[in-house]
Amino acid sequence: MENASPDLVSALKTLAHVAGRLPQGPEFLPTALDALAGVVPYDLAAVLRLDRGRLRVVCARGPLADERVKAHSIALASFPSVREALDSGLTRVMLEADHREGDGDPYDGVLDLPHGHSCMVVPLQGGGRPLGALTFDRASCGPFDALTVILATLYGQLIALAWMASEQRTHLEHQRDQLEAENRLLRTEVVGAEDAGSLIERTHSPAMQRTVRLARQVAPTDSAVLLSGETGTGKEVLARAIHEWSRRADKPFLKVNCAALPENLVESELFGHTKGAFSGAVQPRPGRFQMAHGGTLLLDEVGDLPLAAQAKLLRVLQEGAFEPVGSDRSVVVDVRILAATNVNLEQAVAEGRFRADLYYRLNVFPLHLPALRDRREDLRLLAEDFLYRRARRTGMGPWRLSERGAARLQAHPWTGNVRELINVLERATILAPQGDLDLEDVLADARPAGEEPAAGVPAPPEGSLRAVERRAILQALEASRGKVYGPGGAAQRLGLKPTTLQSRMKKLGIARVQGFR
């Protein structure tokens, strides 16, 4: 510094003074460019962010900084000289030959500046990678002088450091908000059965063993899985097991019931929103995708997702990015998607209620969960596991399933599947604080609501196989609202041909189910 010119010493002092007064937070860029006007003269100064091969203006100051400039972006492939500056980390001063014969100024076509005007590109680097560029333009002709170039380069390094610090601070605040949101979510909702994988791996039925084997194969991948099956078959438990067996096991597992979300809040719940995005949005809130970053998100009842949200979900699956409600900035997430449904999505696609492209994105690896009546070998295992967990959770019990109780489980039709089984066992543990459960009270023979026997056909004796079969058919008809044929019909629920079911209904005196003719 002993041999430095007075102008350089004075300029460096000014630069140090300006740098020391830069504010923290995202608002530092306008202040930084305004302060720089006293050191590097300009008519336009802009900071551009590097984003997937393009430089996009994020801040522009000066007399030439109009709305066209602020919305401007350039493809690096079209500006080799700018790309070379970013790759080398060296400031590039545009000369008259560059404007006349080279790739031109980054604002050509946006600003009407004369050939040979003052133009300079300062690369911004941080953490060993290019962040973007700092550009200066003046309407006057002739290049920036050497001292100005040195000062602009030094200031660019300071801006890059401040920019990196600002981004890191924003990232840490986002992580903090995400953790707080996760904690709130975990405190307010039941996440699911613990150690789901160990339970379903002990299954005895061949149909369920096959499903578990396939789930084990797909779990280590990041492929989307579509879980189908009747209501109450345990789709959430299998989804949790897939998460446990994946490389994301130590990351969040979240679920969202698409059918339970109000249509006007679906996008906010899934993708989050900014402050003021809509009435009542008094503060920004991350959505389920942000909270599940790095982990797994289960979209339960995905067939009930509104079409508008389906389009946004499709983009997340394709690009891993979305915009929160009220924001124009993309959020990039890494989330493994599992979807569950008890409706026929192919039929929903045919009826225009579900996007075909989204269906094929979700249906990469379909898994079907069999109904409980098709896996009766697992009844005792499921019942004993529930009783053990309930005793441990409540401090009551212990309870044991008696042989009579096990036999009654086998005879019941279980049209409500595992969910019905859990409800039955919970009622039984309320009626009997501890000891053996024979389930006589909770599975007492009773005519289902709506049953109206056919005239002239006597009801079969209670407790007989015909009575059990009759009750199963009536419950299937009630669950299907009297529908016999087609998807969701009683025949499909019972695993019978419709003609076979109608024949058995006639023999058992089941003429109709009242209210569902």
TrEMBL record:
Coiled coil region boundaries: 169-196
CDD domains (alphabetical): AAA
Keywords assigned by UniProt, alphabetized: Activator, ATP-binding, Coiled coil, DNA-binding, Nucleotide-binding, Transcription, Transcription regulation
Biological source species: Geothrix rubra
Pfam family of the protein (one): GAF_2
The protein's name in its UniProt record: ATPase AAA
Domain Sigma-54 factor interaction: 201-430
Signal sequence range: none
